[in-house]
Amino acid sequence: MQEKQPNPLGEDARNARTADPCLLVIFGATGDLTSRKLTPALYNLGKEGLLPSHFALVGFARRDKSHQEFRDELKQDVNTFSRTKPIDEPFWGNFQERIFYHRSEFDDDAGYQALAHFLQTLDARYGTKGNRVFYLSVQPKFFPLIIEKLRKFNLVYDAHKDSDPWSRVIIEKPFGHDLASATALQLDISHHLDESQIYRIDHYLGKETVQNLLVFRFANSIFESLWNYKHIDHVQITVAEDIGIGTRGHFFEEEGLLRDIVQNHMMQLLSLVAMEPPVSLNAGAIRDEKVKVLQSVRPFSPLDFEHNAVRGQYGSGSIDGSPTCAYRQEKDVSPTSNMETYVALQLHIDNWRWAGVPFYLRGGKRLPKRTTEIAIIFKNAPGVLFQQQGKQTEQNVLAIRIQPNEGISMKINCKVPGPQNPIQPVKMDFHYGSYFGGPPPDAYERLIWDCIVGDSTLFARSDEVAQSWEIFTPLLDYWALHPVNSFPNYASGTWGPKEADAMIAKEGRAWRVL
Ligand code: BG6
């Protein structure tokens, strides 16, 4: 049994930074994200002593309820969704006294006026010094309106570096629907907020395994010299989910999988895998390098639209032996919907490091299992010594398992013991769970905490978001003009449409079996 080691990206490092006193206001406090992610994250941060001692939480939403009703609902959410259970009753008893509810419509001036007054009262009571985090967990159409009102009622302040008090706004994804809308949204909010106050969340960046990509690449000397077109044959990035769209029919009919997963989460993974070493670990330096990767992604050509971009939609099928319905039968989905629930792409990064190395991306709902992985597939060894029955030995594969079963494995060829010389691929495997002990903290814990301490490294910058939309908007436009008539084209519980297999097979490669 390996000894449990301190996690360099975990609590120890986090404790080294201090969290200022502050109030956190969640807009959309009765929504799904608050229940499933934000409340458990705040509870666990509090329990680990990472929230400032001068802190209070205010839920802002449109439904009528008392402070106590709101607290009871949040307690239920912790009981259901927290990574640590059972709930710590004495801790909750204290914590809930700092939780409040504020009812208002998002467009109601009186509601914001009352909020401003209420927050001042809380400042006086809890010593939160006027510092504010506003978390916008609402439909994107409300982002500009809420930010305008926050400014109008002086709930957000001018940003001066190291100013006191400070105000920050966390904006949930999606940030825009395409390049034009993202640019318009950015312009709109930039009238009221400085870039340093805007925290665009992409929760993938809060995952421990995603943060470890930088450490893995730049704190180990052995990989960097191999990390280029000379040694790497291709890269595969998979974000597979077995769940369908659940109760999010309205959302998904608007967004589809490319906007929901590929444009943000998958492109973040791609940027971190492909970027050059940053000049330092500060937010600007890291984000500069990520943007350069996006700028180097080769634009889709008309041929790519047809041959290097595949969309799919799930039909009925079964997952783990239980029957599941087709996307078109889901609640709030049109029975003739043409929205994609699966995407496979081939991208190229036209820079020196990655010349000629394809990046294959696939993501989808209702695939056989939940797994997110980045696989680096190395070039074959020269086939002069160890060919078996005329076949080359297998390629080395470095597989970075983002979730679940977080870890990293390396496939290498090995001689099978015995007098003959057969060769067999074997795996060297590292598991976070067994090495560091216990499940990693949830991504939202890290991100909320980073915002409170004013570290925007793990949030998307405006040029990053715009650059990613620039890549995908032409494809989205093409898809909108050319609806498919073959949907549904994969059964739930299978690995996507056969066109995705054909896309990668035409180059003599295959998707990894996961
Ligand atoms: C969200 C998407 O951003 O990420 C969801 O909107 C998706 O559709 C989810 O299910 C996946 O997150 P995770 O952390 O479970 O991989």
Please state roughly what percent of the residues sit in beta strands, choosing from under 5%, 5-15%, 15-25%, 25-35%, 35-45% or over 45%: 15-25%
- State the secondary-structure class: alpha/beta
Domains (count): 2
The CATH topology of the largest domain turns out to be: Dihydrodipicolinate Reductase, domain 2
Q: How would a crystallographer describe the biggest sheet?
A: 8 strands, mixed
Taken from the alpha-carbon principal axes, the silhouette is globular
* Name of the level-1 CATH class of the largest domain: Alpha Beta
Count of alpha and pi helical runs: 16
Present as ligands are: 6-O-phosphono-beta-D-glucopyranose
Q: What is the topology, as strand order, of the major beta sheet? A: 8-11-12-7-13-14-15-16
Number of strands: 17
Description:
The protein is an alpha/beta fold. The chain folds into two domains: 163 residues, 3-Layer(aba) Sandwich (Rossmann fold); 220 residues, Dihydrodipicolinate Reductase, domain 2 (2-Layer Sandwich), CATH 3.30.360.10. The chain is built from 16 helices and 17 strands. The strands form three sheets. The protein has an eight-stranded mixed beta sheet with strand order 8-11-12-7-13-14-15-16, with helices on both faces. Strands 3-2-1-4-5-6 form a six-stranded parallel beta sheet. A three-stranded mixed beta sheet has the order 10-9-17, with no helix packed on it. A hairpin with a 3-residue loop joins strand 14 and strand 15. Helix 10 packs across helix 15. The protein is globular. The N terminus is likely disordered. It binds 6-O-phosphono-beta-D-glucopyranose.
